[in-house]
Amino acid sequence: PVPNSTGLNKVNDGSFNVPDPTGIEDGVFHQVDSASKPVPGGPFGGLSQDSYSGESEARSLDRIRQTENLKQKILDLTKDQLASEKEFELLRERKAREAEEELRRSVQEREEALQAHVRQLEKERAEVEQRVTALTLSKQQYEQKLKEKDKELIRIRQLNEEQKKADKEVHRLREERKRREQQEREGALKDSGKTVADKAAVPSPPRALKPTTNTAANNLKSQGITATTPVERPGASMRSNNNLSRSRSFPNLSMASEESASESMGPATSAAAPQFDRSLKPSQSVETNTAFITHQQRTRTGDGIYPRIRSNSPSSGREFQRSAGLRNLGNTCYMNATLQCLANTIPLALHFLSDRYKKDINREPRRGTGGEVAHEFKSLLAQMYYNDKSVAPKGFKSLMGRLCNVYAGYEQQDAHEFLLNFIDKLHEDLNRAVNRKGAPAPLPPADEAALSLNGRINRFWCQHLDRHLSVVSDLFEGLLVSNLTCLVCRKSSSSFEVFSCLSLPIPAISGSVCYLQDCLKLFLETESMSGEAAWDCPTCKQKRKAEKRMIIARLPKILIVQFNRFRCETAWQSKKLQTYVHFPVNSFDMNVYVDHTRADTQRRPPYHLYAFLNHYGTLATGHYIAYCRAGLGGQWYMYDDASVTEVTLSESDKRNAYILFYTSVDMRHQFTSQS
What we know:
Layout: E1 2-3, E2 9-10, E3 16-17, E4 24-25, E5 28-29, H1 49-192, H2 196-201, H3 209-222, H4 234-242, H5 253-265, H6 286-299, H7 307-312, H8 333-343, H9 346-353, H10 372-385, H11 394-403, H12 415-430, H13 445-450, H14 453-467, H15 471-476, E6 478-486, E7 492-499, E8 502-504, E9 513-515, H16 516-524, E10 527-529, E11 535-537, E12 542-544, E13 546-554, E14 558-563, E15 566-568, E16 574-576, E17 580-582, E18 608-616, E19 623-630, E20 635-640, E21 643-647, H17 651-654, E22 657-663, H18 667-674
Parallel strand pairs: 8-14, 9-17
Antiparallel strand pairs: 1-2, 2-3, 4-5, 6-7, 6-13, 10-13, 11-12, 14-22, 15-16, 18-19, 18-22, 19-20, 20-21
Helix pairs in contact: 1-3, 8-12, 10-11
Keywords: Hydrolase, Protease, Thiol protease, Ubl conjugation pathway
Domain USP: 324-665
GO molecular function, one term: cysteine-type deubiquitinase activity
């Protein structure tokens, strides 16, 4: 098309193309050229030039405004589109984050559930292992009992066979004696020339019984059988009544006295017919009695005292050897292990075995047992030290069960509680203090306030010794002081506690190993008291922040240390700490942990370990084993109930230690002084 002066585009075919008045062609806005507007006087005529020019300008302005409006609408639409796209993108990202967080949370919950399941499985496995260990120990004990029973049955069979042989021999000797007596009577009748009728009336000569009886007795002795008279012995009636078997470590003094009486009677008593004591148990064979009597006759001295009894006395210089094992009477390993540690406490054992304890027995009915516990403990010590075989502490357990109901049954108990209960009973039986009846008179408040801490400690200890004085307190007791100090007015208050066993906490440290020194530091460290635990200060008349400090004021000669391995998690469940606590065996200096600010504080020589008690398993289904030094050589022995084994102490033996026994007393000095 060719533009002309009218503003129309002329097409080749002669027609005209009228432009879009909006100025938009094919969606594109075209600027209208003002020069191409129609002019008046053209081929079509029209308006005047001035009026047409004003209308064109108005249309142009309208088009411009419309164009601007369209641009603005397009711009607004574009902005809205961009905002919508941005909002959509943010929404998509938020949904993605929420989905990822939900997935992570579900994975974490699943992981925690799996970890809890793993912990439960580990706990069940530990319980199963403990049950397996307990069953293994029970199986071993049962097998050991079966072996002992088999040995006993074999010995009983042998004794029965020997008894049958002895009965046959006795029957043969009786028949032979009757035959010889008949022959002697017939010979005597022939020599006297009497008739056959007179033979039946003639009695047998009494003098012929003596050589015949002596011959039968000698034959019995040659076969290992002792002929006894039908006189009832006190020892025999005792055996028949209570069915107890006498220990072979002690001679039967009642039998010895009767033998001496029978010897003093002369040969006239040998005319009695041989009799046999049928009240003996199979374990007390006639051969055993024969050998025992022969040994007594061989060792008898002129004054009637047996050297064997003298050699068993601890005051005669006899070297202490290891004690015998103690049989388990049904979950009594806690008692057996504790008694082994006390039996190897040489100063305590010597005090009882030498009978020095008898002069200290407290006869007051309201305190102690009148010496019953002390006598039973001495009897048990004598059996443990003078017997090579294991001892069944039935009498001791029965007595403790009568005094404390918890020990009457056959349930597992805590060895630490049993130790404290027993030495407390022992102390009450042997308390020889003069003023044990009355309580000490208190000081006036002014005098009490004027005393220093050292003065209060000395006063308390002197008052304690006035009311508590025994071999137990002399060996095992020390003194703890708990001191509270107000941080505002510096007012201090002290409380005193006499201890016979130092209970130490086990620190919660990384790893499974700590040292005894760490336990002592934790026990003695200063504790801050604030908040609800603040101290009600008597000087400030209100609750104040305070410091609590534990002080060891006096150390005992025999130091017993117990580790707090059991913690109550719930009302029905306790947890055992399996932490391995390293502890020194020799030259353990406790003076560094004692308050030496006081001039009269006694320094102890270094402590040496002489016994310790291990606990395996849990509190309800555990097992106790004792390790003790015995003899002058200081050999270590493992006491597992009735089993006693010499061992070389290793770290694995010390890993499960529960109670430690240290001594600052020279054991060799104890042996020498007693000798």
